[in-house]
Design brief:
The complex is a heterodimer of chains A (298) and B (171). Chain A has helices at 18-33, 51-64, 81-84, 133-150, 168-177, 192-207, 238-246, 258-265, 270-273, 278-296; strands spanning 36-43, 69-73, 92-95, 98-100, 110-111, 157-163, 183-188, 212-223, 230-232, 250-256. With 298 residues, chain A is α/β, with parallel strands linked by helices. Chain A has a single domain (27-121, 130-296), classed as P-loop containing nucleotide triphosphate hydrolases (Rossmann fold), CATH 3.40.50. In chain A, the strands form two sheets. In chain A, strands 1, 2, 5, 6, 7, 8, 9 and 10 form an eight-stranded mixed beta sheet that branches. In chain A, strands 3-4 form a two-stranded antiparallel sheet. In chain A, helix 6 links the parallel strand 7 (183-188) and strand 8 (212-223). The radius of gyration of chain A is 21 Å and the shape is globular. Chain B folds into two domains: 1-59, N-terminal domain of TfIIb, CATH 2.20.25; 62-72 and 112-171, Proto-chlorophyllide reductase 57 kD subunit B (Helicase, Ruva Protein, domain 3). Helices cover 29% and strands 19% of the residues of chain B. Classes of the chains: A alpha/beta (298), B alpha+beta (171). At the A-B interface, helix 1, strand 3, strand 4 and helix 4 of A face strand 2, helix 1, helix 2, strand 6 and helix 4 of B.
Chain lengths: 298, 171
């Protein structure tokens, strides 16, 4: 039988330059992110826990404190951050040195698939060869996300918040693009279902060695308009149990307030509308946590 | 992937790429020892797979454009998603935009020599038929091509030559 050498044993270049281009993609991304102080993934693993609203409101608070903040809406199939930051329908500037995204609430620039797609109800579709779409669709989405990070002229930022869609595989995708991810905020609700899914995300982030991971307990309780007392929104103490089991701290407990969703969905992050309220206070604590990270970094 | 000429035990080198149609990509490799040629043909799915990685077999003929993958592959892109931006209009960031760095924050890239490049009315009309989602990117490629060759006026003929020279199928 004929004996072949392995791929690596055959060391001559084919001159196809494929590997060189992939390496250049990574270098381009690294150069772009060199101007960013801290990339922060806002993730969960679980859908419907309020990640995007947390991202929009946290970005607004940080910007109001004078930080340079940018937002990447990594939820390509269910984008919402252009709307939440009030820039849906606005154009991106097309420049040789990168795409300049519109600035939304509190002057926060945001890149989102919402800014690129024509119809509001259009599902994300790529030009395809008609067969085996599933084989390369994930690759195309990773390419799109890489371009969101690397091809936007972010300039110098203190924080780049990346809103990661549901699914632990989507967290893994971010880790592949930003392998030295410095920080992740994991959003959860007190519900048991949220707890079990979010635990997987915490495990993934721990295995990846992300140095700073914190929990955001969203929708912890609500203020009864009738009696004025606070009541839990969900049974159970999921966030506290997660924190105890994982050793990951809870940086903020965000109370349920329907106006948070209503106003943020309308492009007005609630922390800007009610800066002295309980919700804004919780987001202030979250921002404190991120600022403390910056102080720890030499 | 590598192609080995079994007779010579030599790695065959990339020689030419073509996109003949039907989603096929043809990449020609040649043995530097005996001159034997072979063509690798990809089916549409394989062609798309390579494209979705943002790479081109044989290397790029023009620099990667910002968000090129999304702009050339997204179905139903918004017509008015992009407007032409000024180079010195500032980056997105809240702090200083890092004016001394290159296009992606790296060292300054080798740029085409400066010089005015005009577009003939016929070329403008033809450029206008390019979907606006990718028009700015396409315009920049043709303009750089003209600058590099000291062409002062871009005409439809120049566009045809550029397409052929640069392998810009579909642009």
């Amino acid at each position: 039988m004929r004996k072949f050498r392995t791929y690596n044993e055959v060391d001559h270049s084919t001159e196809s330059e494929l590997l060189e281009q992939v390496v250049e993609h990574r270098a381009r991304l690294a150069r772009r992110l060199a101007g960013v102080g801290t990339v922060v993934a806002v993730a969960s693993g679980k859908g419907g826990v309020g990640k995007s609203a947390v991202t929009a409101n946290l970005a607004a608070v940080l910007a109001q404190r004078g930080h340079g903040v940018g937002v990447v809406d990594a939820d390509l199939n269910g984008p919402s951050l252009a709307r939440m930051l009030g820039v849906r329908g606005q154009a991106l500037q097309d420049r040789e040195d990168g795409v300049v995204p519109p600035r939304g609430a509190a002057g926060v620039p945001v890149i989102s698939m919402e800014l690129l797609q024509g119809a509001e109800d259009a599902p994300l579709r790529w030009r395809d060869p008609g067969t085996d779409t599933f084989v390369w669709q994930s690759t195309m989405e990773t390419t799109a996300l890489r371009e969101f990070l690397a091809d936007v002229a972010w300039g110098e930022l203190d924080y780049l918040l990346v809103d990661v869609p549901p699914g632990t595989d989507k967290i893994a995708r971010i880790l592949e693009l930003v392998p030295d991810l410095p920080a992740a905020l994991v959003v959860t609700t007190p519900s048991e279902m949220s707890r079990s899914v979010v635990a997987r995300s915490l495990r993934l982030l721990a295995d990846a060695g992300v140095p700073s991971v914190a929990l955001v307990a969203n929708m912890t309780d609500y203020l009864c308009p009738g009696c004025g007392d606070r009541h839990p929104l969900f049974p159970g103490e999921g966030a506290a149990e997660l924190a105890a089991a994982s050793g990951v701290p809870i940086w903020a407990r965000v109370p349920f307030d329907p106006r948070l969703a209503q106003e943020t969905d309308a492009g007005r992050p609630w922390v800007l509308e009610a800066p002295d309220g309980d919700v804004a206070r919780a987001f202030g604590e979250l921002a404190d946590g991120l600022e403390a990270l910056g102080e720890e970094t030499p | 992937m590598k192609f080995l000429c079994l007779g010579c035990d030599e790695v065959m080198a990339f020689a030419e790429r073509q996109v003949p149609g039907d989603g096929t990509m043809a990449a020609v490799f040649v043995c530097g020892e005996c001159g034997r040629e072979m063509a690798m043909l990809t089916n549409p799915m394989e062609t798309q797979m390579v494209s979705s990685l943002g790479v081109k077999v044989g290397g790029r003929t023009v620099p990667a454009q910002p968000m090129e993958g999304v702009r050339t592959s997204l179905e139903g892109g918004r017509d008015d998603a992009f407007v032409e931006g000024e180079v010195d209009s500032g980056a997105a960031g809240g702090r200083s935009p890092g004016a001394s760095s290159g296009s992606d924050g790296g060292p300054p890239a080798a740029a085409p020599p400066p010089g005015p490049v005009e577009w003939s009315p016929e070329a403008v009309e033809r450029l206008g038929r390019v979907p606006s989602f990718v028009r700015g990117m396409v315009k920049r490629i043709y303009t750089d091509y003209a600058r590099e060759r000291s062409i002062r006026v871009i005409t439809p003929e120049v566009m045809d030559t550029a397409r052929s020279d640069l392998g810009l199928e579909g642009m």
